Amino acid sequence: MKERNIMEATVLTSPNPLTLICSQNEDGTTNLAPICFVSYLSFDPPMIGFAAGKQSHTGKRVRETGKVIVTVPGESLTQAVVACGSSTGATTNKVAENHIEMAAVEGSDIQIPADTRLAMVATLQQAVEVGDHILHICQVDKFLGDESKKGLYAWNGFGKIAPAVEG
Q1: What tens digit of pLDDT does each residue of 114-154 get?
Q2: pLDDT computed for residue 85 by the predictor
Q3: How far, CA to CA in Å, does 2 sit from each of 8, 9, 12, 13, 158?
Q4: What distances in angstroms separate CA 23 from CA 6, 59, 71, one per listed residue?
Q5: Where, if anywhere, are coiled coils annotated (predicted)?
Q6: pTM of this prediction exceeds 0.85
Q7: 3-state secondary structure of 7
Q8: d(Cα 32, Cα 52) in Å, to the nearest integer?
Q9: Of 8, 10, 62, 107, whose CB count within 10 A is highest?
Q10: Residue 130 has what pLDDT?
Q11: What is the pLDDT of residue 166?
Q12: What span, in angstroms and rounded, lies between the C-alpha atoms of 102 and 13?
């Protein structure tokens, strides 16, 4: 075995599930941020966690509102996910800029992309500083899924965004 850095390690664990973290901007619009640092944390109660950079607009909005929807985007959003990762929601309306069709979620003010395989509607329980990121620990209020849609994954570290190939 050879010693590796974290970026090389992400290649060795590829593919990694890709999520779009949906949070609410101050003006009520939905902000989208692609993040792979996401994990299930507990079955009972159902909890998930995601890590966002300390300066992340998305992380800030989740900490301010206490609400988030973690989604697994469908394959039609491949280019939009890449574009969303290259700008900040603090100055860009990523939904409008990337012409993403959105859908309402009952019981939430946050919308999600219409092409979504899985949506986890969650409430922030705790935010913990972890190195250069902040870990957002959230209790899932409800799961919404559509198994007919193919979710996106980050391949080769983050060199390629594409669905997993079955078989």
Answers
A1: 999 999 999 999 999 999 999 999 999 999 999 999 999 88
A2: 81
A3: 11, 11, 12, 15, 21
A4: 27, 8, 11
A5: none
A6: yes
A7: helix
A8: 12
A9: 62
A10: 96
A11: 60
A12: 31
Torsions phi, psi of 62, nearest 5? -65, -40
Phi first, then psi, for residue 57 (nearest 5°) are: -60, -40
CA distance 95 to 107: 21
Per the CB < 8 A criterion, the answer to whether 162 and 18 are in contact is: no
Length of the chain: 167
**Largest Cα–Cα distance in the chain?**
51
Residues of the chain with pLDDT under 70: 166-167
Identity of the amino acid at 66: G
- The strand order across the sheet containing 160-163 reads 16-17, 152-155, 160-163
Which residues sit opposite 34 in a β-bridge?
Answer: 20
